[in-house]
Design goal:
It is a single chain. It is built from four helices and no strands. By secondary structure, the chain is mainly α. Helix 1 runs antiparallel to helix 2 and helix 1 packs across helix 3.
Length: 111
């Protein structure tokens, strides 16, 4: 179950980045949508790499990092809602809640 917990978190990270790309592709027209589809997930990836990645020299302390990671996931849910993808947003939100519970239960927030 511990491996499942970490795998779920990793898959949720990828899903969040995909949600930002999907949002970017759908909010604009033409070149704007292309730019946003690339820039939105790129920004999220850079911020995650700087403040949440296990090997980052600027990794936030645990309480702040938990808030940061949760905020990224919640923004991904909002991005899906903004594009009208209610079912996808609900699934993502439920999986984030499950992941949060598992990470807490198995004390894996440092992973």
């Amino acid at each position: 179950m511990r491996v499942f917990s970490l795998a779920l978190k990793f898959l949720l990270e990828l899903a969040a980045f995909a949600a930002f790309a999907f949002w970017g592709a759908n909010v604009g027209d033409g070149a704007v949508s292309v730019v946003l589809a690339i820039a939105a997930p790129a920004l999220a990836i850079v911020l995650w790499a700087l403040f949440a990645a296990p090997r980052s020299e600027r990794r936030l302390p645990m309480p702040a990092r938990i808030a940061f990671e949760t905020a990224i996931f919640l923004l991904a849910v909002v991005a899906l809602l903004a594009t009208g993808e209610l079912a996808a947003a609900i699934v993502l939100a439920v999986l984030v809640a499950v992941s949060t519970a598992l990470l807490t239960r198995f004390d894996q927030w440092e992973a």
